[in-house]
Every structure is written in structure tokens, then in C-alpha cells.
Design goal:
The chain has 94 residues and is mainly α.
């Protein structure tokens, strides 16, 4: 019996979870970007794994990576917009 290798599916799942956790802490823009990058890499690995060996783990990795990617992008944009609003308000008061 040949055992199938699910390394890419596991990596996609782990990167999706890590990207989601890091994207939640996007109050610091650095973590938001790391979460976004984890989401991109996890999405690529999940799609590659799904093509080679379809599994629910690969599907879960793809879904989590998409959520992490979207959340990371939105949170990072919101962080920069908030900083810009604070700076423009501070400049308007002086």
C-alpha cells in the first residue's frame, strides 16, 4: 500500500492558520504584511496540493489562506488609513 504525501496540504493549512492569526494582529502593519504573505504562499501550496492529490486538508488550507489574505489586506489598508487620518488631523490643528 502506497502512502500519499500530504506535505503541501499540511503546509497550506499551517500557513493559512498562521496567516489568519498574524492578520488579526495587523494593528502593527508589519504583522499584517506577514499574514498576507503567509496567505499567498498557503494559497499557492494549497492549489498545488489540490491538483496533485485532492484532499479536505488542501481545501481547508485554501479556504483559510483566502480568509487570511483578505483579512490581512483589509486590516493593513485600514491601519494605514487610520494613521493617515491621525496625521492629517494633527497637521490641521497646528
Amino acid at each position: 500500500m502506497e502512502q500519499k504525501n500530504n506535505g503541501k496540504a499540511i503546509a497550506s493549512l499551517v500557513l493559512g492558520i498562521a496567516g489568519l492569526v498574524l492578520s488579526i494582529f495587523a494593528g502593527m502593519a508589519f504583522y499584517g504584511w506577514i499574514g498576507t504573505i503567509c496567505g499567498i504562499v498557503g494559497l499557492i501550496l494549497g492549489i498545488m496540493s489540490k491538483k496533485e492529490n485532492p484532499s479536505t486538508m488542501a481545501t481547508a488550507g485554501i479556504v483559510l489562506s483566502i480568509i487570511a489574505l483578505a483579512w490581512g489586506i483589509v486590516a493593513t489598508i485600514a491601519c494605514y488609513a487610520c494613521a493617515a487620518a491621525i496625521l492629517s488631523a494633527a497637521n490641521g490643528l497646528s
